[in-house]
Amino acid sequence: MAGADTDVVADQSRIQSFRTAPGPTETPVEGYRWNGHGDGHGAGPGNGHGAHLDPHHASTTQLITQAAGQISTLVRTELALGKAELVEKGRKLGLGGGMLATAGVLGLFSFGLAIALIVAVLDIDWPLWLAMLVPLLALGAVMLGLLGLGARKLRAGASAPTQAATSVRDDISSVRHAFQEGRHSR
Q1: Angle at CA 182, nearest 5°, toward 177 and 186?
Q2: Alpha-carbon distance 143 to 35, whole Å?
Q3: Do 84 and 75 contact (CB within 8 A), yes or no?
Q4: pLDDT of 177 strictly over 60
Q5: CB distance 31 to 50 below 8 Å
Q6: Which end of the chain has a smaller Cβ tally under 10 Å, C or N?
Q7: Dihedral sign computed on CA atoms, order 105, 107, 110, 114
């Protein structure tokens, strides 16, 4: 996890270097180093940093090559940053989903224990069979009510999207009408 955070920070710093003007020590494009002054004290071919590029004396081809290289590097860096962000968000979502699922299971156990407590309290004054029957009937009534409401909502949601279909039909009709109007105006 620490490695992913380090990669994100490195990617963000690389992106920031492209958003600002390159300084004397930055190498925005491999093979070129811009010292910003044109004084000839940049990286040269003999020092391992690639060719020196003075923007004031560079040819259009060199400038276009440098810009294309910078754009390509920027796009790759942005994609890497996006991937790192998605991985991190995926981890957080997975952890949150797991915690919610665990809470749901524990909630079911708690609900069962609450029903058992109700049965035990009712068993003090009533016979056991009646103490169990009353919560069972109450839960059955709630379940049937939710079942009916849920089925009704599913039926309402399962129908075809009428607004979108009507809108598409209207759009097609408008395009057809405009096409015919254009054909007749010639």
Answers
A1: 145
A2: 74
A3: no
A4: yes
A5: yes
A6: C
A7: negative
CB 15 within 8 A of CB 74: yes
Tell me the C-alpha to C-alpha distance, in Å, between residue 112 and each of 98, 108, 133, 140: 21, 6, 15, 14
Task: Tally the C-alpha atoms within 13 A of residue 80's C-alpha that lie toward its C-beta.
Answer: 18
pLDDT at residue 126 tops 90 = yes
**Residue 69 DSSP one-character state:** H
Residue range 54-69, pLDDT digits in tens: 878 888 888 888 888 8
Contact 73, 18 (CB under 8 A): yes
The residue extents of the domains of the chain are 2-99
DSSP classification of residue 29: B
Which two tokens mark 22? 């390159």
Q: Look-up: residue for tokens 């990286």?
A: 43
Residue the block writes with tokens 């093979």? 31
- Estimate the crossing angle of helix 128-158 against helix 60-125, to 10 degrees: 150
Model confidence at 135: pLDDT above 50 = yes
Question: What CA–CA distance (Å, rounded) separates 2 from 81?
Answer: 15
The model scores a pTM over 0.85? no
